[in-house]
Write the structure tokens for this entry.
Amino acid sequence: MKETLSAGHPPHPAKSRSTFSGKMGYVLAVAGSAVGLGNIWRFPYLAAKYGGGIFLLVYLILMLTFGYALIISETALGRMTKKSPVGAFHAFGKSFPFQFGGWVNAVIPMLIVPYYCVIGGWVTKYLFEYMTGSVTALADDSCFTDFISSGASVEFWLIVFSAFVIFVILAGVKQGVERVSKIMMPVLVVLAVFVAAYSVTRPGAMEGVKYLLIPNFNNFSWMTVVAAMGQMFYSLSIAMGILYTYGSYIKKDVDIEQSTTQVEIFDTAIAMLAGLMIIPAVFAFSGGDPNTLKAGPSLMFITLPKVFASMGMGRIVGIVFFLLVLFAALTSAISLTETGVSTFEDQLGWSRKKCSLFMGIIIIVLGSASALGFSVLDFISILGMSILDFFDFLTNSIMMPLAALATCFLITRVAGLDAIAKEVELSSAFKRKKIYNFFMKYLAPVCIGIILISSIANVLGWITL
Ligand code: PHE
């Protein structure tokens, strides 16, 4: 079987699998999936919370080693088997480890998309407020807390956002969305540069730039590593089946190594820009108050409105900014939902419509739990976390390391490192092959093991990270 696979003939060739038009199409599609709320909303708040420069350093090291190896692995496995994760694992065996490996990869997007839509709803609400409400009122500290603790309003915006996602999936206008995102993404970059430039030139903001860029080892804790790894998975769309699926759509002549590098550079550049928009603003407006720095998920919704209120044309900038974030969130939410829908289609044999509606129900049920976790359901605390934080933690710190471990296992124990090398070499020389092999064989399993154990121990209160 190994022979057949590495020669590029899948055991169960798909009848008519769509392919990307070429390398450019593939890089844009992966970058489009990678750039989303993870970069603009999640990266800055984690960097602020877990030590600034030291978080960034750990993130970069992990991304260039671990992330790089995993992107190559998932893409190559997808291209080799021409299958999404469940099918890719099944191509090698049907026993429990293969079932588990495939399904854990496939279930993660289904658990992420509901809370992703909750945040998407918050973004939609802010866009609406910038269009109709008062810019100064939005900059008020209590504005955000009042909003998320008003259950009905959060629920309403969750429904608005997810209805749109399901509508697009049902209508199958993915083509359109992809075409529009090619225009919107560059606009987002230009706007982000503009807001970041404004933010870093505020009085007192330089301290924030230093906090983000200069590593301070006193701020290091194990949690920095755990959070940085979760963020790397999340932001690069690793360990959630998506790269298997995308890999299965690319032709044999696409240079996997080079496109991986390009996606990593693009994704990190956007995250850094978002960090530069938000963190210096925290210092400018609150003098780097540790409580503000540790604000967590709400950071973007509390700090940026202050920046916008203090600048001329704040309303316009607010509208354009939240419109673009909304767009980045929508394209990512659509691709997350699409992954779930296609898993259901492949594995349950249901019609596309039925699968989409089923995903819609999952989003509304699990999403409502996360949405209402700050109001009516705020008495529920799972392992000390709100429901939204719990889903984020469960997927990023527990399930994704397990999914990554399954991929390492599949490659080192079953498919063989040579099979991956052969697949990559179909299109180009595999320049970092030695590092890749070393990483997959030794470092990755050890790192993942340590991270998994420490995040579980932390939650159970055995250790404080
Ligand atoms: N990477 C996306 C982000 O940063 C999230 C995502 C993951 C989107 C997987 C699609 C698929 O927001």
Remarks:
- The radius of gyration is 21 Å.
